[in-house]
Amino acid sequence: xxxxxxxxxxxxxxxxxxxxxxxxxxxxxxxxxxxxxxxxxxxxxxxxxxxxxxxxxxxxxxxxxxxxxxxxxxxxxxxxxxxxxxxxxxxxxxxxxxxxxxxxxxxxxxxxxxxxxxxxxxxxxxxxxxxxxxxxxxxxxxxxxxxxxxxxxxxxxxxxxxxxxxxxxxxxxxxxxxxxxxxxxxxxxxxxxxxxxxxxxxxxxxxxxxxxxxxxxxxxxxxxxxxxxxxxxxxxxxxxx
Length: 241
Description:
- The protein has helices spanning 10-23, 51-55, 64-70, 76-92, 183-193, 198-205, 209-223, 228-238, and strands at residues 32-38, 43-47, 101-110, 116-128, 133-142, 154-158.
- By secondary structure, the chain is of the alpha+beta class.
């Protein structure tokens, strides 16, 4: 249970977490867990039980100190740079726009068995006011099987029609990215990444199987790949979602 702090009602915060779990555009391309980070206190406030499947640690063992210590030495500079960029971007946003952006990057983290896995980290500010940020909601997904090697990538994904900023390189300038896919194609792309077949996608989106297959063909052509597996690898490596 989340503790009440900084004027935040516990029940309301739990409700917000459940809403974010449903609404956050996350990848189901591997095992994942979610956590609540208390920015105000600088600590992980809650970790879901799935962390044991991903990292081998119990929720109680998962602290910010453990997380920081287990980041691969090569990826620590990227982690610090990405977090600085995320803070700089969020500070530029009007308060009512903050909820419409998702921070996303990947890095290698050492599991309890001392093996490194690559995590796709996605998070949203969860609890904030005009002056401060108090909590953020995170989804961490194991994408080692998709991206075993390569440089960490950082993107800021716009939700509800807001512009996105893919594979950000410059620490000072945020340039809006051209969106390769239409909104419907993005909906289908997310479901493809989750491993769903065309029939299931058609049922989930209440559209015809023919329409799904047409979109799938367009998505593969736009991505410059031939198979769904290659598509998923490209999506992850280019930080497109």
